[in-house]
Specification:
Helix content: under 10%
Distance between the termini: 40 Å
Structural class: mainly beta
Number of strands: 10
Amino acid sequence: MRIQTDDPDRPWIEVAVTGIVEKFADVRPERVRLAGPAGTLLAVEVAIVPRADYPFTINRIQARRGEFIKYELVRQSSDGLPGWSIRIENTRQEPGRYVDTVYLHTDSAVRPTLPIHVTGIIQ
């Protein structure tokens, strides 16, 4: 990491940051890619399972734009653990590309929002 300072003798300081990153939830797949011919059904199911150390509930779901996708949240269990499934579907009918993000709003103070990045490549 580089830090900019107001010290004329040391305008930049480089700092190494290390630590353990714990997963808040298992999200599969972590990113959604909707690619294929225009006019065909393009959809992906995303599974979200909270980690035991970080239980949470999804309160609502929203897209940043939502112009070329539709989405639905379904509560379900996975291997006996509470979880959710989100179906994200392309709605764009003409060729082109887009990017969007679906935000999962949780009741957790640790991670109040989980983003799912969506890329569409319609041919």
